[in-house]
């Protein structure tokens, strides 16, 4: 049985004070909630504060990015051990905004994924097609390439430590959600790709989240699809009530 996982990607939002207020509201509701794995991914500047606040709760901490090297002359970057020091257990990698605005390729995502796993962080590896690619009938090709490229060279044990997030680029922050059937189709495709790369047992065990304009109103239907194991939530994660409702929709 795959345990559902709902993660909030706060992106470049929330001062430390705002982050503390949001997480305190989440804690009041979710501190002892065990049915679904709940992860919050604040910006780097709020990680330390949020880490202290979620200590001894069932809310887990994630970061939104990291560098693949262990240390060194990489001005402005953060490495895996710095995240571990703050008790981060997850890190989002290859988000479409990183791919689009910061030139991240599958090869880069792959290096980061391996570095995260080597530091005992669970990578949340994002894949997804653009609208143009969907309209050109290239969903299968694009997703297959991204999954194979991002997870290349991982062992079965390592992929089982990872989470995949299917996030159609056209659905992120646009208010346009994939229908539950569209999302299910791609999640099943990802499991097929994983079967080819590893085996059917591994493919059935890896958790695959859906992301892209998930809201309380559409979460239940999406999360009830057989291959959807929760969500990666952007905009709606900034509002405590919306995020809590989405988490509870995953039960
Ligand atoms: C995201 O950025 O991961 C995301 C899914 O954003 P939103 O929920 O705002 O579409």
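Sequence proposed for the structure above (251 residues):
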């Amino acid at each position: 049985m795959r345990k559902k996982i709902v993660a909030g990607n706060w992106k470049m939002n929330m001062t430390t004070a705002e982050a503390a207020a949001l997480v305190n509201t989440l804690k009041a509701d979710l501190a002892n909630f065990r049915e679904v794995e709940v992860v919050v991914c604040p910006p780097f500047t709020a990680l330390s504060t949020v880490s202290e606040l979620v200590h001894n709760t069932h809310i887990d901490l994630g970061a939104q990015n990291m560098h693949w090297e262990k240390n060194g002359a990489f001005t402005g970057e953060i490495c895996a051990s710095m995240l571990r020091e703050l008790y981060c257990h997850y890190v989002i990698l290859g988000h479409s905004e990183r791919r689009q605005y910061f030139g991240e390729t599958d090869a880069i995502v792959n290096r980061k994924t391996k570095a995260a796993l080597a530091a005992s962080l669970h990578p949340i590896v994002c894949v997804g097609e653009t609208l143009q690619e969907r309209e050109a009938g290239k969903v299968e090709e694009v997703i297959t390439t991204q999954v194979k490229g991002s997870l290349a060279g991982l062992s079965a044990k390592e992929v089982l430590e990872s989470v995949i997030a299917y996030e159609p680029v056209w659905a992120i922050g646009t208010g346009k959600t994939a229908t539950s059937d569209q999302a299910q189709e791609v999640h099943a495709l990802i499991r097929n790709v994983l079967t080819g790369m590893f085996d059917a047992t591994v493919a059935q065990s890896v958790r695959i989240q859906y992301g892209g304009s998930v809201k309380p109103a559409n979460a239940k239907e999406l999360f009830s699809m057989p291959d959807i194991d929760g969500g990666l939530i952007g905009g709606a994660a900034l509002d405590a009530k919306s995020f809590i409702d989405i988490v509870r929709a995953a039960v």
